[in-house]
Amino acid sequence: MAAPIIRIDNIVKRYGPLTVLDGLSMEVLPGEKLALIGPSGSGKTTILRILMTLETISGGHIEVDGDQLYHMPKNGGLVPADDRHLHTMREKIGMVFQHFNLFPHKCVLDNVTLAPMLTKGVAKATAEKRAMELLDMVGLADKARNMPAQLSGGQKQRVAIARALALSPKIMLFDEVTSALDPELVEEVLNVMRKLASETDMTMLLVTHEMGFAHDFADRILFFDRGKIVEEGKPDEIFRNPRQERTQTFLRKIIAAGHRV
User: Fold this and answer.
1) Each residue's pLDDT tens digit, 158-210
2) Cβ-based neighbours of 24, under 8 Å, separated by 6 or more
3) Which end of the chain is more exposed for a tag (fewer CB within 10 A), N or C?
4) Which residues pair with 18 in a beta bridge?
5) Are strands 33-37 and 18-28 parallel, antiparallel or unpaired?
């Protein structure tokens, strides 16, 4: 079996006196599609933000693609990572956020090409060719010269996916990418993610309240509560026959609220 592409070992995350993650350990295999579910405030988004180095850890170790994320080797031991190491590690990971975060003063094409040109020194013509391929993949090649204000929420989120893919990450993180969208726009974004999941071998971690999509998308489901993994398993195991009472209670509430699982 391949070595894990993500190895999280006993990490702790505190915000002042509040402990959000307490001794969390988990592994993700290369190419695995993982869905993180659970109530709000259970630590799911914090994990993604930590992997993207948008948050630091209070303790423990994380390994990404064979290298330490928050530490680096020095004199036979490990020391806290410097900015250069974090920058190098960050190139392995792409993230799509709940609220798009597009640059409003730049057109769609410029939003997608900016990061490869600035962070990797990709030539403008090369970056634009790749950007158009990605915009075509998400169904927005005809919007390349539009400004973000001219797009619907679903279109903005598809541009955000293309932008994250433009850096050719090995790992993609999706944080509640449909929760800010009107219901009729959700499906167009989910369709792009289905396409990514089926047509690429990219490792993907998804935080979502779309349980039906999580069931269809994921190889494995992790149910979180209060910063801990309460239960994990294949989608059918978690959604059809959850073992833990906390998981059962959560899913009953989700179903009662009208969500498909």
Assistant:
1) 999 999 999 999 999 999 998 888 888 888 899 999 999 888 899 999 999 88
2) 8, 10, 11, 12, 43, 47, 60, 227, 228, 229
3) N
4) 15
5) unpaired
